[in-house]
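Hi team,

Below is the intake form for Zn(2)-C6 fungal-type domain-containing protein from Fusarium oxysporum f. sp. lycopersici. Please confirm the fields before the structure is written into the shared record.

FORM ID: S-0412
PROTEIN: Zn(2)-C6 fungal-type domain-containing protein
ORGANISM: Fusarium oxysporum f. sp. lycopersici
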Amino acid sequence: MTKSKASSPGSSASASATRRQHATARPGKARSLACRQCRDRKIRCDGARPVCDSCSRRGLCADQCVYPEIEHEGSIASSRSYIRALQKRVQELEEKEKQLELVAHGHNAFVATTPAHEEWRKLSTSPSVVSERIARPPRHVDHALPPIHTDSGYSLPSFSSRAGSLPVVHEPASYYSRPHHLMGASPPLTDDLEDAAPAKPSSFGSYSSNVKAALMLQKITLPPADLMDELLAEYFNIDWITMPVIHRPSFYQRYHRLIAVANSRYRRDIPLEEATELAATYSLLLGMLAIGQLAKTSITESVESHASHAFEFHQQAKTLLLVDLLSVSSLPVVQALIVHARFLRRAGAVQETWMLTGMALRLAEGLMLHVDLPGKAQAEREERRRAWCACALLVRMQNSPGSQTNPTFGTLPQEIDDEYLEAFPHNPDRVQPCDTPSRLSFFNQTLKLYDDILQPIQDSVNHDTESVREPVSNILSDALKLDCDLEEWHAAIPEHLRVKFPCTQPEAVFRRQATLLRMRYLETKALIPRVAIMKLISSNATQPTSIMAKSMLAGLFESCYAASVELEDIMARERRLVTFDGPPESHSAIGKSRHLSTTIFILTLISS
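The structure came back. Fields below:
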């Protein structure tokens, strides 16, 4: 009895060890695979098919609740998928090699066989040459831009169109809507690219496309997130309020997708189309960061160092924008060109600004942004209108005398803020709430000012350089008409865009817009008499004899002087706003000293 009792502890220990061994040898409980949506949002997923519980509660459909085929490298699913991909790739290469051999044999039936020709035939059908040819994809494949997936569920279908000589493709109108089955985890970019499986079925040239996509994604290096958020806030608070070419919700959806891809080790299986769209978003983001850096006030660093940091963002995007994305016709590329042109203009690089502006206009014409295409959602339609009006405005502001390019604005954007625009196609359009002033009003008022007053002034100046001298009566009557048109425009300005002293605007954005609009009104108010005075001087006009003409001439001087003095006061008071968001250079050559000297000269002429 004693022996058996003594041996029982040892036997029980061995039995428990055996049980533990069997437990560890048993396969673990099968776990359900989370869908892409839940993986990206880092929430629990029940793995239900076709739509999991989390996606069902969010109202997503089966096309958006996608399950990855490969969970981890080294898993059974990964190995099987990898083997199938390799087998499929080998079959494609063998079929292509057979096709090339048939072509070569057919050619030999008509061409006399010579040693040189036989050598060429052998080389042309060798596997190395075949693989080299396969690595050259058709050009049109690289241009298509499918949607980029986001979590919002926006769905804006694209509309195919062609115009001019530009290669117009299906525009990524819904780049912020439809999910992509190849998103999420994929092998690291640093791995051997030859091991990558084709991203698309029946992909002749897909291997080269994957390499190109990988090289494009390799150029994406993002700054720290807190710095990007800070500079984006500067951009939207300072520059976007004057030229809102970007629909903010859709941009932030692409922006978060870009961050997810940039921070992931798994990029290799992202197809070329999505990589191109990500590169366009990256170029647009860098332009916005450059403007934000230029607008940000800095106490610790010098002005030169501050500007050089802004130029670093622009230089990062230059290769992508002018090489990789130059042949891509898409709305984000147009927006990126506009934003970078804005930055260069603020930085004083006039020649580069003009080049980027011209490229943006040509791409916009190819995409037919000036035409309201059917089937577009309200949000996309408004974004297209804004981009076109911005292109046209930049071109017209920088036009030289006698320029043949003078695009019209067409239909102006609706004064509806981004958050109120309808994002789904075929849904009824939404409107701005009656008690909420729109941030888009400033942009529309600027377009109207340029169309109704500034463009006629520019045309009259260009016409004056080509014609004989103009009578005094015509000069005075033209100035009076333009001044009346300006006052009508000023009277129609919405109440939230009027400067109030003391300032009572509820938002700082409206205060900035109101101040800038007041400055543009004053500079135009001073520009009208200044143009008339310079015409009178250049035409060697004699002193008018009628009392009415003398009164009108004196009114020109008073109007020019009063507007110049008030403009100088605002510029002194709002120094930071003027430094970055001052009047456009094409019609802002109005300095107080120049007005005073001109006024004194003319007053002396009259009094003599």
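SUMMARY LINE: The chain has two domains: 143-436, 444-607.

Thanks, M.
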